[in-house]
Amino acid sequence: MMRHRDAWAEERRSPTEEEARRQREEAAAAQPAEPLPAASTPQPNVSRRVVAPAHHDADPDGPAVAQDVLVVVSKLKRYVKAHSGMNTSDQVTGVLSDHLRDLCRQAIRQAAQDGRRTVMDRDFVRVLRGRE
After folding, report:
1. What is the pLDDT of residues 59-97, one digit of tens each?
2. I need a labelling partner for 21 at 20 to 30 A (CA). Which of 40, 75, 84, 108 fits?
3. Phi/psi of residue 119, nearest 5 degrees
4. DSSP 3-state assignment of 18?
């Protein structure tokens, strides 16, 4: 009987450093060199994560965003258990996420009033002080 792991596995090994360098050199030689812009300097080969910018004209509280859980459920449950010995209901995360959304909206307004485009910890402190 064939094991499921062996049925689809392909035996491949990573190239050695020398082989990888040679493959990069061959690939570079095969492509015509593009001139670099005058103001730029060559950057090392670094992998980057490209993130699409948020669309400001979209509804910020659209169905996808409104349903997002904004807390790490496992850490919340572990914290409550460690400090009280109690369990945490699954419905708590929705209530906390709604509360966090409200706090964020108020902190965003506070940052905008200060003429900033970055929400900072002091914005949340001001919002929380205003609730006292």
Report:
1. 555 666 667 899 999 999 999 999 999 999 999 999 999
2. 40
3. -85, 130
4. helix
